[in-house]
Amino acid sequence: MSGVMSIEYCHIPSVLSERLSDFHLLLWLSKQPNLDSNDMTLLCDAIRNRAPVLEGYRVIIDSIAGL
User: Average model confidence (pLDDT) for the chain?
Assistant: First the structure.
């Protein structure tokens, strides 16, 4: 079982900016009331530069997603 678990984890992006690099997800996030245009600019810059996304955004996005 541990071999299967390690294979599954290899396919899960560990960096939030990688998971957020989906265009349709970004469009959906841009329409959420919790994120304004400045937030989306910072998120898109982090994704474009492959930089870490601030932890606060992780909390907001997890909250929107119901996680």
Answer: 77
Rounded Cα distance between 5 and 49, Å, is: 30
Could you tell me the two tokens for 44?
Answer: 């898109």
Q: CB neighbours (10 Å) of residue 57?
A: 20
* Tokens read off for 63: 């909250």
CA distances from 28 to 23, 25, 34, 54, 56 (A): 9, 5, 12, 19, 18
The torsion angles phi and psi of 34, rounded to 5 degrees, stand at -80, -15
pLDDT tens-digit series, residues 38-47: 999 999 998 8
Cα atoms in the 13 Å half-sphere on the side-chain side of 8: 5
